[in-house]
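Escalation from tier 1.

The customer reports that the assembly of three entities below gives different structure tokens on two consecutive runs. Tier 1 could not reproduce it. I'm attaching the input and our single run for tier 2 to review.
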Amino acid sequence: MRAVDRVLDAIDLETVLLAEDERSARRLAFQLAKELGLTDADIVALEWRANMARVRVRGYIHRPGHHYTWLGQTAR
Amino acid sequence: MKRRCLGVAGTAKNTGKTTTLAAILREAAAAKVAVGVTSIGYDGEDLDHITGLPKPRLLVTAGTLVATVEPALAGRPDFEVLEGIPVRTALGRVTLARVVRPTRVILAGPAGAAGLRTVLDRLRQNGSDLALVDGAFGRLAPMTAVDGLLIATGAARRPDPAFLAREAAAITRLCTLPEMPGEGRKDLVRVRGPVSSLTLPYPALLDLHWAEEVAGRARAAGGFPTDIYLPGPASAAALERLGQGLSGIGPVTLVFSHPLHLLAGGEALAVSAALDGLESAGHRLAVRQGLRLLGLTVNPYYPAREGAVYRAAQLDSAELLASVRAAVDIPVTDVVLEGSQALWDRIWGRAGEEGYG
Amino acid sequence: MARRKVLLAPMDPVHDVGLKLVQRALDAAGHSTLRLPPDLSAEEIVSRAIEYQPDTVLVGRTLGYNVPEVLARLVDLMEAAGMRSRVRLGVGGMAIRPELAAELGYDRGFGPGTSPEEALAFVEGREPQPPAAAQTLEKPDLTAGYGYLAKDREVATSLEAIATAAVAWGKARTSPGVERARLRRRLLAAEAGAGAGDGRVPESAEALRRAYVRECDPPIRAFYEGTGPVGKTRPLSPDEIAALAAAADPGGFERRRVRHLQTRPRVFVQYGTGCPVMDSAHNRVAEAWGADGLVHFDPSWAARTEGLIEGHHSHEEDGTLLTLANLRSIGRARLSGTLWQVRAHRGLNTPEIVVLAAAAGADLTKVNPVYGSLGAGTDPERLVVDGVECLSLAAAAGLPLDVVTNEELCGVPAGKAFAGMLIIAAMAVHLGGRPILQPLFCLSPDVMVTGRMDDNFVDYNMAKVMALRQLYDAPIWPGAPIGFLTHTEDRVQSATSTALHAAIAVSLEVDAITIASADEAYSGGSIAAASRVDTLLATAEAFRFLGSAKVAPTPRAREWADELVAQIKDTLRRILERPSLVDALYAGVLGSPADGVYPGRAGRGTVRLR
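Tier 1 run:
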């Protein structure tokens, strides 16, 4: 059993990225998710100021309707 | 039938208790010895719940008796539940079960010596020829209920072979104090002279105040006491104070209740040093109930703390083994390095020394 | 109960609050206690225990480096001192788990969130009483104690006239929606092997289903004829259905408390990930973190299609399909004390949804043909006919319903929207139902334009509740969700805004609120369960923060409440000038293109006289 199989739906990454503009901040945010193995990722929130971006990137492990690896183990 | 109850205690967490226990379980299975197993704490998870590092698993073969808590057996068809035992733990009631097919086990059992005696009786009544007791942390005191002990020490206690060797010597020294049978009440200090004796209420913990009190009363008794029975743990400082109080009243035999009670009183090295002081003043040392220390196991592995996380680290195995071996005159082994056969032979007494055989 | 002697030993250098609380509970229960000064060594504690001779020793200690060793050493000393078999040992602290307590040699471990009652039970050697919140499995009736009387003579007369006429108008007509609801009721009865409640013999389910399908749009017909799936849906697999069945209330489930001292408001959350299995999992998360109620969200496209499909289905996008199988499974998976609302306020299937909601065991529904026709695209005439049927069905099933005023989000001023809400509420009461008023706590377009929230979010939201209470004696359930249009994609901002709006709600002592998740403003994917926890925690914190204190508005709130009352009365007068409620809807009296709403067109021309 991998811990990731027990993720109910998604993993959020929250951090501050150093980026020269918002566009590159968004690109870096997606890249970060990919580097950490989150292939189905989206930016939930991103606020860029000066050369920093406060970001929340979401990597979906289980989208609704997919086959959940935790099926049968919830709600106990 | 002879009771064979073997405890596996550790000087600290992660010193290799579980690995030692697993090795004995393997050998017992190969030798077809009917084994029962329990714990004075909790063991059996994949990851240590303090360090988060992987832990060795405890595997048991069919026919093994286990005394563990009800939740560890719930929903596990690998076990046939035999009976409940009237001993409660923080995880529920202790239950006796027989292993139906090879499986891993989560052990949790009685926290104290009294509960452990009850559980060991039940294991024996249900046919175990060898009962094994898994220790927990550095807790040793409940092991007064066993009749043979292996102590695991290693780098997790302190990653310093020289220290571990010195401490192993101190522990061995305390555990091999001569036995002086006799009466002994848990709550009374008994000061015995050549013609009379007196008793003092004992606080069950010899602290500085009571060390002075005991020495003072011994003096006031006016004679030359031959022996003093101390029924509980004593700190190193209290032992030193007692030594000072007894100075000039001749050699006395100090009888302690149990080696493990002495070890519970403080760091083995400090207690041993305090006993050295008493001995060099001419006093003799003994224990009311002796302990069969069958050997030591050493483990070079330790969890190294780096900030908030731990990582697995290791001392040089051969060096550690050699240092500890040189410091004591009882068998020492590293079961990972040397295998478990020698350890088993030692337990079963086939190596010509005192064992269970 | 024998009097016990308990020694309390705080081994922590600073914190002994937990042990002080436990001591208070033990003293109150008549036990004798001795609390040692903090930071004594294991030896000192054992010495004091030897003097005091307690039955129980409770040790408090926050875990840190080397702390487990110190705690284990205390146990070893107690054993060596011969006290272990006489004294029960408990240890409490932030990181104490039962497994750790067992490993350290304690008889019990008390982790974070332990109540003094649990420690008391341990001392007394019994099982702890469940906390009061867990004991009350009775579902609250949000409408209890309300008389539904208009408190203003003019409003009373206007509502009576408009509601009576609208109900009579609706009852004289029917629609495909009304017919399908009736067929569905008969179909359910037939499948259950019963008559339709009128003593007749069971009908043929097959024939009823054929009649039902004739009243459906082509995509739904294709589903029943087996020639095509509907939209982005797929049937659930057997293991998914089994997982849903296994998700039933496990019993003894402990919820976090969301309210502090307050008994109101009940806190509802919305769900509708598209997948009933995920919904059930999300709902259990929400329940665990204190949600009192769940609101089902269905896909918006389903509202524009005549007819509903059957069976367990998953939907690829937001909104979970309204089928009896889906609803039953989701409903059964909720905890026994959880309120559950299935909405029937918009679209072409509203009466049938009330039938399904009642059949699935829902506790509440949602009806508002005024909003549904002005803000959600359904033809006013059609939705008023269907709405009257919904209100009748809800009354017959004993389902209270809220009347939501979401048209405010499209630009309709609150006064107009409230007039519509009061009319629907009056119609519900006329038909024997129990309505709940649902004003929005929101930063609406009208408020933005008029600048009523330029200074604060308190005054106007409070004014809405004050105005409604001035006119009508009914339960109030601000929604939906509270703080609508104030949330951003930032989770802290979003949760804080929800909590602050909850602070207004609790100050007003309203009956319920619906809260968003912290993902409210995120539209790129489905809501994550963790974001549901965020706002429940934030709301609980607001309730804890306020206790019996209240948020106070400025005097502007009173002025705006009076202004709202005047707008409501004015709107009611203008409706009375029209031939009917439906005519007033088309004419824009309850919201016009100038406000930003248009009468919907879905289902136009489908109403016929009975």
